[in-house]
Structure formats: structure tokens, C-alpha cells
Please model this.
Amino acid sequence: MSQKIEALRDHYGLSATIFTNEAIVDAIKARNDIVHTGATPRRRKIWPKLVFVRELISMIVFHEIGYAGPYESYIAGYRMVHPELEGGRD
Model:
């Protein structure tokens, strides 16, 4: 599954700095814990993984609809991102 998500990241030209291979694998492990056991171990903090997946899906949807304007990001804390001013995400 991680190879498929990495391929999506690369296909859409998303940041490999934000959407690292390690972060993708970590999110998949959290997903597998939930799917296969019905819960996530207490030691695994799930909220950062949810934020990560939300950001990944948002970037894919933005690309598909052709949106390149400002948006709210929650990766590493809340901030407004203005791609046209910042020259992109990387």
C-alpha cells in the first residue's frame, strides 16, 4: 500500500519533504491497527496521522480541480499557505 501512496504523491508532484515515505508507512501502520484489531494502541497517537491523510487528500483534490490558491494547512501546526507567494510547498 505504501508504494501506491508514494506513487500518488509522485504523480501529483506533492512534497516529498512533507509526505515522506516514513510518514506514509506510519499512517498505514495506524490504519492497519484500526482495521485489524478495531482499535489503535494507546502508544500510537492517531491525530497526527489523521491530519497527514487530510492534507494528502486535500492536495490531490486541489490538483484535480485545478485550485492553486491559499488554503489552511494543519501539518506541523495551523497556518495559511499561499502557494503563489511561497513558490509552492517544497
About this structure: The radius of gyration is 14 Å.
